[in-house]
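Private note to self, pasted from the team thread so I don't lose it. C-alpha cells:
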C-alpha cells in the first residue's frame, strides 16, 4: 500500500507530538514528529510510506492537497490535536472534496477521545487509538487494511461504531525511528542553530496532575527503554550528523538509577552530545545531576505550575514549594540551566495567587520560564471539571489552545500570562546572568526566539 502520514498545514507553528499539543515549544521550536516517523518506520517493512510535516517550513495547504491528488495514496493518516482540531478536520473534508476516495484515518489524543464523534460526523473511515504504533505494527503484517482485524482502531460498520483491542506497545521492542523519512535538518534548536531529534526514554506517568494528558495517552504505568536501546538511538542520530537531542519522557528522572546508568554509558563511550529533558524538581538528586552534566545535559525543564501551595495541592501535583526550590538550587549548583513551566488559572488560583506565582518565578533561580493558561484538554481531569463551560458549548470539533482560553471568570488570564513573560525576561539581572552562561550571540538568538514566540 501507498501510505501517507501527515501533520496538516496551519497558520501558526504547533507542536503535535504525543501528549504535547501547543504552539511551538522551547524558544519557538517545533518538535520533530516522532510518532509519525515511528509509525512510518514500522509500516515501511511492508508498505511504501511518506511523511509530511507541514508544521515545519512554509507549506501551503493547496500545495499539499495538489501533491496528494497526484501521488495515488491508498491510505492517509491525519494527526489531529486539540489546538488544531478545526483546521485538521477541515483538511480531512477537503481531501474528500478533491476526490480522494480511499481510506482516511485520524490519529492523536483529540481523535482518540472523540473517536465516536469523528466516525459519526467526519469523513474518516477509522480512528487510530492511543499511541499509534499498535495499529502500525498490526498493519505492517498485512498487505491490505482490514479494519475488522486491525489492532488499536475504532471504525464504523453496519451495526455502529466498533472499538478494537488496543494493547500498549513494548517501547523497547519498537524499531529505531528512521529520521531520513523527513527532512530532519529543518528541526533546529534556535539557541545553537543546530538540528536535533527526539530520543524517547520511556512512556507513562504515575502522577495524577489534573491538567496533564499523559496518563490518558500513555497510561499510569512507566514503560522505560533499556539503556542499550537508548544508546543505539543516540548513535543513530550521530550517524546522521545530529549531536543535539531532546530526551523525551513525561518525567525523565522517574528512575534515577536508569538515568545514571545511561549517563555513565554516554560518558564512557565519549559520545560528545548535547541534550535537554523534562524532570520533576522533587525527584532530582545531586549525583544524577553531576552525571547528567558530564554526559552533555545543558538544560532541565521543570513542571512547576504554581508557586502557591494550595493551588499545587488542588492540581494534585504531589509536590511542595520547598521541594521545588531545593530541586532548582541543585540544578543551579550542577551548572545546568533551569527552565520553569507555569500554568496560570489552575483550580483555586486567584488574582493574588497568580501574581504571587509570577513574582516568585523571578526569585527561585530559573534561567528561563514559560507561562501557559490552564486549559481543559480532553482526557484530563480538568476537562471533566470544566466540560459544561467549554466543550458542551463550544463543540468537540472546535480548537482549544493554551493562549486562547481563560477558565477564571472575571479574570483575564491571557493578560496575566502575557505580562508574566515580559516581567520575567525584561530584567537586566537575568540578561547578565544568561550572557555569562550562554555567551552573547547565543543569548541574542535565545532572545529573538522568545520574542517571535510571543
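Design output:
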Amino acid at each position: 500500500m501507498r501510505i501517507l502520514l501527515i501533520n496538516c498545514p496551519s497558520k501558526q507553528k504547533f507542536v503535535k507530538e504525543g501528549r504535547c499539543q501547543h504552539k511551538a515549544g522551547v524558544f519557538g521550536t517545533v518538535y520533530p514528529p516522532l510518532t509519525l516517523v515511528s509509525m512510518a518506520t514500522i509500516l515501511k517493512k511492508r508498505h511504501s510510506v511518506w511523511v509530511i510535516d507541514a508544521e515545519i517550513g512554509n507549506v501551503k495547504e493547496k500545495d499539499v492537497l495538489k501533491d496528494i491528488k497526484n501521488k495515488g495514496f491508498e491510505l492517509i493518516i491525519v494527526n489531529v490535536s486539540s489546538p488544531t482540531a478545526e483546521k485538521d478536520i477541515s483538511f480531512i473534508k477537503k481531501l474528500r472534496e478533491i476526490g480522494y476516495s480511499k481510506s482516511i484515518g485520524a490519529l492523536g489524543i483529540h481523535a482518540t477521545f472523540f473517536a465516536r464523534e469523528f466516525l459519526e460526523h467526519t469523513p474518516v473511515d477509522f480512528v487510530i487509538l492511543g499511541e499509534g504504533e499498535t495499529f502500525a505494527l498490526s498493519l505492517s503484517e498485512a498487505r491490505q487494511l482490514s479494519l475488522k482485524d486491525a489492532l488499536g482502531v475504532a471504525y464504523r460498520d453496519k451495526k455502529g461504531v466498533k472499538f478494537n483491542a488496543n494493547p500498549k506497545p513494548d517501547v523497547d521492542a519498537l524499531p529505531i525511528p528512521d529520521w531520513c523519512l523527513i527532512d530532519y535538518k529543518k528541526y533546529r534548536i534556535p539557541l545553537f542553530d543546530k538540528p536535533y531529534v527526539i530520543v524517547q526514554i520511556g512512556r507513562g506517568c504515575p502522577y495524577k496532575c489534573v491538567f496533564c494528558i499523559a496518563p490518558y495517552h500513555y497510561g499510569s504505568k512507566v514503560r522505560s527503554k533499556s539503556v542499550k536501546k537508548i544508546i543505539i538511538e543516540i548513535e543513530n542520530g550521530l550517524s546522521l550528523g545530529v549531536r543535539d537531542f531532546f530526551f523525551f519522557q513525561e518525567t525523565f528522572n522517574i528512575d534515577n538509577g536508569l538515568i545514571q546508568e545511561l549517563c555513565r554509558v554516554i560518558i564512557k563511550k565519549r559520545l560528545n552530545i548535547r541534550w535537554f529533558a523534562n524532570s520533576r524538581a522533587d525527584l532530582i538528586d545531586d549525583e544524577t545531576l553531576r552525571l547528567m552534566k558530564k554526559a552533555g545535559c545543558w538544560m532541565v525543564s521543570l513542571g512547576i505550575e504554581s508557586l502557591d501551595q494550595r493551588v499545587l495541592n488542588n492540581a494534585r501535583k504531589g509536590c511542595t514549594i520547598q521541594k521545588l526550590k531545593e530541586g532548582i538550587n541543585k540544578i543551579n549548583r550542577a551548572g545546568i540551566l533551569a527552565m520553569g513551566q507555569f500554568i496560570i488559572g489552575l483550580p483555586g488560583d486567584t488574582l493574588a495567587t497568580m501574581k504571587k506565582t509570577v513574582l516568585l518565578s523571578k526569585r527561585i533561580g530559573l534561567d528561563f520560564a514559560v507561562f501557559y493558561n490552564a486549559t481543559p484538554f480532553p482526557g484530563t481531569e480538568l476537562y471533566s471539571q470544566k466540560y459544561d463551560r467549554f466543550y458542551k458549548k463550544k463543540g468537540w470539533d472546535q480548537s482549544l489552545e493554551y493562549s486562547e482560553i481563560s477558565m477564571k471568570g472575571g479574570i483575564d488570564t491571557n493578560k496575566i500570562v502575557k505580562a508574566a513573560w515580559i516581567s520575567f525576561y525584561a530584567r537586566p539581572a537575568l540578561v547578565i546572568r544568561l550572557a555569562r552562561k550562554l555567551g552573547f550571540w547565543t543569548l541574542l538568538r535565545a532572545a529573538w526566539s522568545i520574542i517571535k514566540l510571543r
